[in-house]
């Protein structure tokens, strides 16, 4: 099955970069796939960090046990595995996004 190429607007690109940097600043391991940001923490983040994540649009994903930020709305309500997203979407690394 061919990968789905998506175009990301500058506003969405900035949302992804901001989310990536916020999660890293709080000590998370961060992965960007398509227009999604996933953040894993070794321990429960502080209440202040959790509130900042929520205020920035992150939501807790019970199944994946991580915080996630959707740069664009999900088209399906089905919970797809991470491998599906990697296989279907081209990995997009927005300009300005640097690994720590």
Characterize the structure shown.
- The chain is α+β, with helices and mostly antiparallel strands.
- It has one domain.
- Helix content is 32%, strand content 18%.
- It has three helices and four strands.
- A four-stranded antiparallel beta sheet has the order 1-2-4-3, covered by helices on one side.
- It is globular and about 35 Å long.
Distance between the termini: 33 Å
Poorly predicted tracts of residues: none
The SSE order reads: HEEHEEH
Beta percentage is: 15-25%
Overall shape: it is globular
What spatial order of strands do you see in the largest sheet?
Answer: 1-2-4-3
Q: How much is the average pLDDT? A: 79
Kindly state the percentage of residues in helix.
25-40%
Q: Main sheet?
A: 4 strands, antiparallel
How does the helix and strand content classify structurally?
A: alpha+beta
Radius of gyration: 13 Å
Number of structurally distinct domains: 1
């Amino acid at each position: 099955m061919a990968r789905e190429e998506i175009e990301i607007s500058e506003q969405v690109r900035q949302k992804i970069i901001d989310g990536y940097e916020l999660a890293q600043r709080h000590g998370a391991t961060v992965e960007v796939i398509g227009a999604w940001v996933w953040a894993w923490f070794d321990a429960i983040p502080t209440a202040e960090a959790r509130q900042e994540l929520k205020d920035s649009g992150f939501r807790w994903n019970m199944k994946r046990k991580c915080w996630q930020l959707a740069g664009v709305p999900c088209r399906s309500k089905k919970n797809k595995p991470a491998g599906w997203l990697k296989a279907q979407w081209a990995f997009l690394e927005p300009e300005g996004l640097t690994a720590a």
